[in-house]
Amino acid sequence: MSLIDIILLAIALGIDCLIVSFSQGLVFNKNRTVNSLKLAFSMGFFQGFMPCIGYTGAEYIYDFVAPFSKWIVFAIFFILGLKFILEAFENRKKEICCIGLKCLISLGIATSIDALVSGAGLNFTSTPLITSALIIGIASFIMSLCGFWFGNLFKKFPHKYLEIAGGIILIFLAAKSIMF
Known about the structure:
Layout: H1 3-27, H2 32-56, H3 58-65, H4 69-88, H5 101-124, H6 129-152, H7 159-179
C-alpha cells in the first residue's frame, strides 16, 4: 500500500470515531476539554493498536474475529445507544458521563474492530506496520476531537433531546455495523 492508501484507510477507519465522538460531544457539559482528550486518546490508541494485533496474528485472529466482528460492534453500540436513550427519560440531576474507563475501553474497541481486521490486510499486502499504525491512530485522534467539539456546538438544544440523539447515533452505528 502507498502512503496515500494508508491515509485513506486511516480516514475511513476514523469515521466511526468521529461519529461516536460527536454523539459524546452532544451530552458532555463539564470538563469538556479533558473529556474530549480522554475520548480522543482512547479512540486513537485503540485504532492505532488494533491493526498491530491484526497484523501480527493475521492468520489466527482474522479467522476467529471476522465472522463475529459485526455482531460485537452491534452489541456494544446498541447497548450504549439504548443506555443513552433510557437515561434521557430518567429524572436525575446527575449528568450522563460515559467517560469512565470501562466506557472508554468499550467505545475504543467497538470503533476499532475494523482496524483489527485491516491490520491483517496490511500484513497480507506487506505494508509497514509502524507507519500505518501511527497514521491510523493520529487520524482517529484528530477526527475524534473534531467530532466531539462539533457535537458540542449543538448544546443549545434541550438536553433530553441531545441524549436521545446521541443514543440514536450509536444505534445507527450498531445497525450500520451489521448491514455493511
